[in-house]
Write a structure and sequence with these properties.
The structure is a homotetramer of 132-residue chains. By secondary structure, chain A is an alpha+beta fold. The first copy, chain A, is built from two helices and six strands. Chains in contact: A-B, A-C, A-D, B-C, B-D, C-D.
């Protein structure tokens, strides 16, 4: 959201090709296509992509749930664990809120490779604050 | 590194504008310019940028230390904590290896804003494995 | 496990009163009674208890799955998030393996308070190594 | 602290033998003796001990800095990384506040074995809230 409280564009999300595929109160889903532009030097999907996707999805999900009551959302911590390398195809992400607190939300994000295997997991804490 | 063991390009690092400014056995330093392309919707530097920078720097630092003995480096976990929003200027990063184990290296990365204040921290675990 | 590969006693687990209530290939369950001896100064269940319970349960679950093939398990990282204070009754824990890798297992542990509400979560990485 | 705002006893800290050896505005130091009572089944210092020590020291350090202005401290997350097994002697801990925010403090804790080698690290986030 910008100064006026209206959500702006997710620059990094767009740059890496994040596509939001679903959004309800209980989950946010998305996916990203593995292209050369988001690999690391060994030819694998760069770990920063998982963290960025998780950050975008959890911030968005929290923001959409709290902005009507005059609050905003800001990332506080992002802990991503990489389980299995991915080199091509789409990686899918599913974010679920595990805790909706007054001042923090905690989300789990599971990432699956094109064969549906868990390839990474993130746990993200989003701070909820009065909108500026 | 690609299949031949030669380091390839860091696609995501290039895309976000990561500039490596120094590299010794005891630290890797870098910086990134805060542009519209890497903001999140509220106009702040996107949290995924910190995680991506940390991941690139720590993977590179580990790889350069182990590849001569036939090993390679692969991110295992990345835990980033966001302390202070940044909206413009350059963010600087300094990565230091805290543990150089046989199978894992653990790094700390401190990020500072243009005024030199700590704005984020990452702890990154890189797996060391025999090169393919 | 001791030098002979036979599991020894879990000193800390016993001291805090950890009771293992179930164990299958897909989960380990346990509980701990909240007594004065494991509180922190404000009268809440000490955060270290959650971390200790998670560590004991995930190490045990991994060890029991790998020791027959001559491997052992050793904690590598433990990340616990505290969601809701608990002051009395029993806290229940359920640990599920999310990734069974060749060299690491990753577990999620959910903790619930006496009313069944999620009060803490842990993500634990256990290294799998050849037994000594 | 108890309901009256007066710090109570650190039950778990006492039980594991935590000794606070120093406290200034910029660090808290402590140590714990490795005894049978706090080992895990393989005969190594239990990972939960590191997490508990870190939690006690960082909560104490934050509490002592904020209680005079009517605030209290409560653990929010604790992420501990285990680097090197310890089987006997004393483990020393040094906690330093890396961020003193209005609503959260973030600490780093380094643990060293009897030979002075880094054996574990913790990053701890403590929430600062109005005292009840």
């Amino acid at each position: 959201m910008n100064a006026a409280g209206t959500p702006g564009r997710d620059g990094l999300g767009e740059m890496i090709g994040l596509e939001i595929t679903g959004h309800t109160a209980d989950e946010v889903t998305g996916r990203v296509e593995v292209t050369d532009r988001i690999l690391q030097p060994a030819g694998l999907l760069h770990g920063g992509v998982y963290a960025a996707v998780a950050e975008s999805m959890c911030s968005m999900g929290t923001y959409l749930a709290v902005y009507e009551r005059g609050e905003t959302a800001m990332g506080q911590s992002n802990s991503t664990t990489f389980l299995r390398p991915v080199t091509e195809g789409h990686v899918s992400a599913r974010a679920t809120p595990r805790h909706r607190g007054r001042t923090t939300w905690v989300w789990d994000v599971d990432f699956t490779d094109p064969e549906g295997r868990l390839c990474a997991m993130a746990r993200v804490t989003i701070a909820v604050r009065p909108a500026p």
